[in-house]
Design goal:
It comes from Saccharomyces kudriavzevii (strain ATCC MYA-4449 / AS 2.2408 / CBS 8840 / NBRC 1802 / NCYC 2889). By secondary structure, this protein is of the alpha/beta class. It has eight helices and 16 strands. The two termini are 17 Å apart.
C-alpha cells in the first residue's frame, strides 16, 4: 500500500516560554525518515498536563517545539530496513511531537501494532488511555506495589491518571482515598472505584486521612500536585509509607532536608513512566495488560472531550483550569 506524503503538515508547537499566546497552529515540514524509521499519519493524540511544563519553562526544550506525547495512527511510509511493520498498519505509540499530522518514529520502541480494522472509536480510546494507563499500571506495581487492604491517597482523583488509579486500586482490593476539588469530581471518582472522598476545597486533607485510617496514615500516596501538597502528603503517610511524587500541577517542590523522611522511615520516589518501559519485555508486559483491561472492559477510560488539533490552546486552558474530568483528546485533521 502506497500513500502520498505531502512536504508540509499542520502541527501545534511552542516558540517561546509563556502563556497560551505562544501556542501556534501552523505549517511545518513533514519529517524525513531514515532506513530504520517509520512515518505515522496520526489520527488521535492525548492531551497531557506535562505540555504546560514545557510551555512555562519548567522543563527546558529547544524551540520551536512540537508538543504531544502519545497517539494512534497508520503507518504511511517505512525505511528499507524496517521488517516488523508494513504501510497500512494501525499503531498506538508513545513519543514526542504527536500534535502533528505526521510523526517520525523508530521501528523499535514504545509502539504497538493494533488489530487490522481497529475502529476510529477504539483508536481514540487507545490514544486517550495509553500513556496514563501505563503510568498507573507501572506505578502501582513498581513505584509502590499495592497490596490488598492498603490505604492509598490519590490526588487529582478525577483526572486521567486518577480515574485509572481508582480502578486499579479497586481491582487490587485496596482502599482508594480520592482527593478532588468539587462534588462532581468526587462523585466521578467514586463511580470509578474510589472508596473514600475528600473535598480539598472544603475539608482538611490530613484531618480526613487520619480519620479514615484511625490515625495511622496511608500506606502510600500518588501525588501529582507537587508543591502545594508536599507537606500534607508527608504528614499523611504512615510509618514506612511510600511517597510517589509524579507531577508539578501546583509548581515544583522546593528543596528540602532529606532528614524529614527519617522520623517515619518514609520512602520517596520521583518516577517516570519511561523508567519502567525502557526494555522491550517491559513495554510488552504493560501494553498487554493495558489491552487486556480495555478489551475485557475491566478498565474504563473516561474521555472528557475531543477537540480538533487547531483548538489545542482551548484544551490547554481547560485542563489547566482544573475543571475537567477524565482525559482530553485531540483529533488530527486527515
Amino acid at each position: 500500500m502506497e500513500y502520498t506524503i505531502p512536504e508540509t503538515q499542520k502541527v501545534v508547537l511552542i516558540d517561546g516560554v509563556g502563556g497560551y499566546d505562544i501556542i501556534k497552529y501552523e505549517n511545518y515540514p513533514v519529517p524525513l525518515i531514515s532506513d530504520k524509521d517509520i512515518l505515522i499519519k496520526n489520527k488521535y493524540t492525548g492531551v497531557n498536563y506535562i505540555e504546560s511544563y514545557f510551555r512555562k519553562g519548567l522543563y527546558p526544550c529547544e524551540k520551536p517545539y512540537v508538543l504531544g506525547r502519545e497517539a494512534t495512527g497508520v503507518i504511511v511510509a517505512k525505511g528499507k530496513d524496517v521488517t516488523n511493520f508494513e504501510t497500512g498498519d494501525q499503531v498506538a505509540y508513545i513519543s514526542n511531537s504527536t500534535f502533528a499530522q505526521y510523526t517520525k518514529f523508530p521501528s523499535e520502541g514504545t509502539i504497538m501494532k493494533l488489530p487490522s480494522g481497529t475502529s476510529d472509536e477504539k483508536m481514540k480510546l487507545y490514544a486517550a488511555g495509553l500513556l496514563q494507563a501505563l503510568t498507573a499500571l507501572s506505578f502501582t506495581n513498581e513505584a509502590y506495589h499495592v497490596k490488598k487492604g492498603d490505604y492509598i491517597l490519590v490526588y487529582a482523583a478525577a483526572g486521567g491518571v486518577g480515574l485509572i488509579l481508582n480502578q486499579l486500586l479497586r481491582m487490587k482490593d485496596a482502599h482508594a482515598i480520592a482527593v478532588a476539588s468539587t462534588y462532581e469530581k468526587l462523585e466521578t471518582a467514586k463511580d470509578y472505584g474510589a472508596e473514600f472522598l475528600i473535598d480539598s476545597s472544603k475539608e482538611d486533607i490530613l484531618t480526613r486521612v487520619l480519620e479514615i485510617t484511625d490515625g495511622k496514615g496511608v500506606d502510600a500516596s500518588f501525588d501529582s500536585v507537587g508543591k502545594d501538597t508536599f507537606d500534607t502528603t508527608l504528614a499523611a503517610l504512615k510509618r514506612k509509607g511510600v511517597f510517589v511524587s509524579f507531577g508539578n500541577a501546583s509548581g515544583l517542590i522546593p528543596p528540602f532536608s532529606i532528614n524529614r523522611l527519617s522520623p517515619k522511615n518514609i520512602t520517596l520516589l520521583r518516577p517516570q513512566l519511561y523508567g519502567y518501559i525502557a526494555e522491550p519485555e517491559e513495554w510488552k508486559y504493560y501494553t498487554n495488560k493495558f489491552v487486556d483491561l480495555i478489551d475485557s472492559k475491566k478498565l474504563n477510560i473516561k474521555i472528557y472531550k475531543t477537540y480538533p488539533l487547531k483548538d489545542y490552546n482551548v484544551a490547554a486552558a481547560d485542563i489547566e483550569s482544573r475543571k475537567t474530568i477524565g482525559k482530553l483528546v485531540l483529533e488530527i485533521p486527515q
